[in-house]
Specification:
Length: 328
């Protein structure tokens, strides 16, 4: 591993970058075309990577958590974001559409069962997919757990996290008239889907910057700007999902855990995650005998946190040693 100033760099813990052996656009109906790619070993252990957001899109670094000589890695951009089209669209775009899209990918690629790897919203969708298709899910790799409950949304968009970052919270709140500040998610949603394009852009950027600034401990609250197109898809899709409670019943994921208790899981959680506090990961793992929860000290929410990276790579490596994969 490469070392810089006596410290192991984060990305040096990952596998080398590799190019996909397959890229395609898949028609999933309802006017949506989703981007799908495959990399690694064509006959390897199949794993689908579920990105966060909603609206974040997949990125090349997500390929690098898996040994390319062992894994067949499938990445996709969920409806409305990344290279999927129509861009930033919320029409026919719900959790259940995305679960159906994942199943269509599996069937199209002629995969019997696969592992599911997801963080943040990707963990939410991974869990809902597994609970819907437990017979198609071999293993879950989860990071930065978000269970899409009202208390979690209230924490991040109702002032909880803002108590730790008051200067950033003020930037997020100040765009909204005082009479609407009792429901900031609703106020942002109205502007993000309003007719005023200038306001739409301003609210999209502010929403995205608020989350980005709190993602990593290394950011230390730095409000980095993000590309405008990314901000638009990310903010519109998150707002759409969150004002609708992620299209789930309150507490549904924990309620339905009996459906997947037999599935092995690795849960990696940053101890100082400001976006998805550790209590959700702890509640998820409690009573799940096949789950292993690792709390990473001095780590936040982001996939790029060095301790989180190391734990996830260790977990994917360990899974290749399972008896069912000895042929590899």
């Amino acid at each position: 591993m490469n070392k810089t100033a006596g410290h192991i760099s984060a990305e040096s813990q990952l596998y080398p970058s590799s190019e996909p052996f397959d890229r395609r656009t898949l028609d999933v109906g309802d006017g949506h075309q989703i981007y799908v790619e495959q990399c690694g070993r064509r006959d390897g252990i199949p794993v689908i990577v579920v990105h966060g957001g909603p609206g974040g899109g997949c990125s090349p670094i997500m390929r690098r958590f898996f040994n390319p000589e062992k894994y067949r890695v499938i990445l996709f951009d969920q409806r409305g974001c990344g290279r999927s089209r129509p861009f930033a669209s919320v029409e026919h775009n719900t959790t259940w559409h995305l679960v159906a899209d994942m199943e269509k990918i599996r069937k199209t690629l002629e995969i019997d069962t696969w592992s599911v790897f997801g963080g943040s919203w990707g963990a939410t969708l991974s869990l809902v997919y597994a609970q819907t298709h437990p017979d198609r899910t071999d293993k879950l790799f989860l990071r930065g757990v978000f269970l899409a409950r009202k208390a979690e949304l209230d924490w991040f968009y109702g002032g909880g996290a803002g108590k730790y970052w008051p200067e950033l919270w003020e930037r997020f709140v100040h765009l909204v008239p005082e009479g609407e500040r009792h429901d900031l998610m609703g106020a942002y949603h109205r502007r993000l889907f309003g007719d005023d394009r200038e306001a739409q852009s301003e609210f999209a950027m502010t929403w995205a910057v608020w989350e980005n600034a709190l993602a990593s401990m290394g950011n230390n609250g730095t409000p980095y700007q993000v590309p405008q197109n990314y901000a638009l898809a990310f903010s519109r899709l998150e707002s759409h999902y969150f004002v609708n409670g992620a299209f789930l019943d309150e507490g549904q994921i924990l309620r339905d855990m009996h459906k997947i208790h037999h599935i092995p899981a690795t849960i990696v959680q940053g101890r100082y995650d400001m976006i998805c506090p550790p209590t959700s990961a702890w509640e998820l793992a409690k009573g799940w005998n096949n789950a292993n929860l690792t709390m990473i000290p001095a780590a936040g929410h982001a996939l790029s946190e060095p301790g989180v990276m190391r734990a996830l790579v260790d977990a994917t490596n360990a899974w290749t040693n399972d008896a069912r994969w000895v042929y590899l």
